[in-house]
Amino acid sequence: MAQEALMLGRLYLERYRRTQDVRDVDRSITEIREAIAALEALPSQIVEAEFRSRVMSTIESINSFIDARANIDAALQAKKRRIKRTRFTWATDNW
């Protein structure tokens, strides 16, 4: 379940990168949070310390992935501003 939710989260984040539709990024975060919730239940059920450590490391990595989404959003917004500014400059220069 966690793996499927994580894959869907990645899918919708990639989709957001192309469409820049807020619904895609919201769905991505929802799916990723579901993956985290499923993983957070595991450590108490795992006896071996190494496997428990791996699960905790995975949870930390997924949280980093969520944080990186903000960087992607900022980069896309900056790209949109540059394109808009370039189009405006081109249009006024060729008027």
Features:
3 helices; single chain; elongated; 95 residues; mainly alpha
Detailed description of the structure:
Helix 1 (2-19) runs antiparallel to helix 2 and helix 2 runs antiparallel to helix 3. The chain contains three helices and no strands. It starts with a helix and ends with a helix. It has one domain (2-93). The longest helix has 45 residues, at 49-93. It has 95 residues and is an all-alpha fold. Helix content is 86%, strand content 0%. The chain is elongated, with a radius of gyration of 19 Å. It has helices spanning 2-19, 22-40, 49-93.
Please outline what is shown here.
The protein has 95 residues and is mainly α. It is built from 3 helices and no strands. The chain has one domain.
Helix content: over 70%
> Over the alpha carbons, how many angstroms does the gyration radius reach?
19 Å
Strand content: under 5%
Count of DSSP H/I helices: 3
**Major sheet description:** none
